[in-house]
Design brief:
Family: Belongs to the aldehyde dehydrogenase family.
Radius of gyration: 23 Å
Strand content: 15-25%
Largest sheet: 7 strands, mixed
Number of domains: 2
Protein name: Aldehyde dehydrogenase (NAD+)
Shape: globular
GO molecular function, one term: oxidoreductase activity, acting on the aldehyde or oxo group of donors, NAD or NADP as acceptor
Oligomer: single chain
Organism: Pusillimonas noertemannii
CATH architecture of the largest domain: 3-Layer(aba) Sandwich
Distance between the termini: 61 Å
Structural class: alpha/beta
Pfam family, one: Aldedh
CATH topology of the largest domain: Aldehyde Dehydrogenase, Chain A, domain 1
Length: 476
């Protein structure tokens, strides 16, 4: 049984859940405890007690701990990548790549711990010196989703620790295995007891405590739009600092002058890999009419050729859907698309394989209107809607016709259109001739409109959330 890590000790619970492999429902990955309200209280108490000393720790102490975590993640990427693929369902190469990214994130923020900057300025008044410095917030509650069960925790935990905060971490209840493995590595990194705490369990218990407890200074949350908005409303009423990463309905624009091979690769990689279960997936493919028929025909052919199967099989390109409820949601949107009048070109069916799992064939809808639900609502599965556009201006307007604004892309040979699109599309991230899904770990991540709230994640911009600015005046 895998326990929570609280106050420097592994702590049990009577409430235990089984972690089941979506590729093979007979494969139990492990048993993991669920935290009680008392467990969460103990974790918050230990974090608060550890914070005064940790907030004054040296950059070298923080560097050493984070660098050690990153080194072990990279050394064990194959082993932990297999665990990730078993519990979440993304393919083994994707799982290994995600663990490697987590290791790189920890190493990046190890370096950032040595580069916490401030400013010394002359005052506008004579005989006074001004200093501007950054200080840690205190106790940070971290809530992460199931679709990237080790990378997203890494890009929240690493900067929180690097800037001198203490952490209470709640992973998604669906995928505790990768989070526990990360916590086990962190437990041996030399951090003082209470600086980092793992509390696995339900959001109704753990997340609610983060919102209500005054010991939590800030909450960083990645997950569904309804839950995120609830977190924001309730936490803001208590004047907590909040960072949200929520949904996406990301456009990929394909103009008539695009390289067809590049555009098809961007569409397939962006829409279907990781089983479409990523907030940066290109679920709205907007294609200019001059290339529309050729593009949709070839996209259908290549989508039908994708190999859906067990996440650990070497020939699998698309793994299973993560859980039964997500599979039902994907299937329901196929029916919604049909009822709305979109043309289903391929896919959208539950598949049978050698093992019982949540297998689903990637789907392509054509002749989709931007007003349709399948073009506006986040499905979070391998379902792509192809929308015709008259020209570049029409395509840009369609790209912006969404309540979300996370990632966006354009495939074109035109420098004029690429430049204009980068400036005019209403999204936090823009890709030109590369898939909308797939980002670097050392640069900002985040969106606009309904996709994000608060400062950016990742890269040096993470300091805007995990630190507070202090201005000090000293008379000479």
């Amino acid at each position: 049984m895998h326990k929570n890590w609280i106050a420097g000790q592994w702590t049990g619970s009577d409430n235990v859940q089984q972690n089941v492999n979506p590729s093979d429902l007979s494969d139990v990955v492990g048993e993991y405890v669920r935290a009680s309200a008392a467990d969460v209280d103990m974790a918050l108490e230990s974090a608060q007690a550890a914070w005064p000393a940790w907030s004054l720790s040296t950059p070298q102490q923080r560097f050493d701990a984070l660098d050690m975590i990153g080194t072990e993640l990279l050394a064990r990427k194959n082993e932990l990548g297999e665990l990730l693929a078993r519990e979440e369902g993304k393919t083994l190469p994707e799982g290994i790549g995600e663990v490697a990214r987590a290791g790189q994130i920890f190493k990046f923020f190890a370096g950032e711990a040595l580069r916490i900057e401030g400013d010394a300025l002359a005052s506008v008044r004579p005989g006074i010196q001004v200093e501007v410095s950054r200080e840690p917030l205190g106790v940070v509650g971290i809530i992460t989703p199931w679709n990237f069960p080790i990378a997203i925790p890494a890009w929240k935990i690493a900067p929180a620790l690097a800037y001198g905060n203490c952490v209470v971490f709640k992973p998604a209840d669906l995928v505790p295995g990768s989070a526990w493995a990360l916590a086990e590595i962190i437990s041996r990194s030399g951090l003082p007891a209470g600086v980092f705490n793992l509390v696995m369990g339900r959001g109704s218990v753990v997340g609610a405590a983060f919102i209500e407890d005054p010991r939590v200074e800030a909450i960083t949350f990645t997950g569904s739009v309804p839950t995120g908005r609830q977190v924001l409303e309730q936490a803001a009423a208590r004047q907590k600092k909040v960072q949200l990463e929520l949904g996406g309905k990301n456009p990929l624009v394909v103009l008539d002058d695009a390289d067809l091979e590049v555009a098809l690769d961007c569409a397939i990689q962006g829409a279907f890999y990781s089983t479409g279960q990523r907030c940066t997936a290109s679920s709205r493919i907007i294609v200019q009419r001059g290339i529309y028929d050729r593009f949709t025909s070839e996209l259908t052919h290549r989508t039908q050729a994708l190999r859906v199967g067990h996440a650990l099989r070497s020939d699998t390109q698309i793994g299973p859907v993560s859980e039964a409820s997500q599979l039902e949601q994907d299937l329901s949107y196929i029916e919604i698309g049909r009822q709305e009048g979109a043309r289903l070109l391929c896919g959208g069916e539950r598949l049978q394989r050698d093992t019982e799992g949540y297998y689903f064939s990637p789907a392509v809808f054509a002749d989709v209107a931007s007003s349709m639900r399948i073009a506006q609502e986040e499905i979070f599965g391998p379902v792509a809607s192809v929308i015709p556009a008259d020209d570049y201006e029409h395509a840009l307007a369609l790209a912006n016709d969404t309540e979300f604004g996370l990632s966006s892309g354009i495939c074109t040979r035109s420098l004029k259109h690429a430049t204009h699109f980068k400036r005019s599309v209403q999204a936090g991230m823009v890709m030109v001739n590369v898939p909308t899904a797939g980002v670097d770990y050392h640069v900002p991540f985040g969106g606009r409109k309904g996709s994000s709230y608060g400062p950016r994640e990742q890269g040096r911009y993470a300091r805007e959330f995990f630190t507070i600015v202090k201005t000090a005046y000293t008379a000479a």
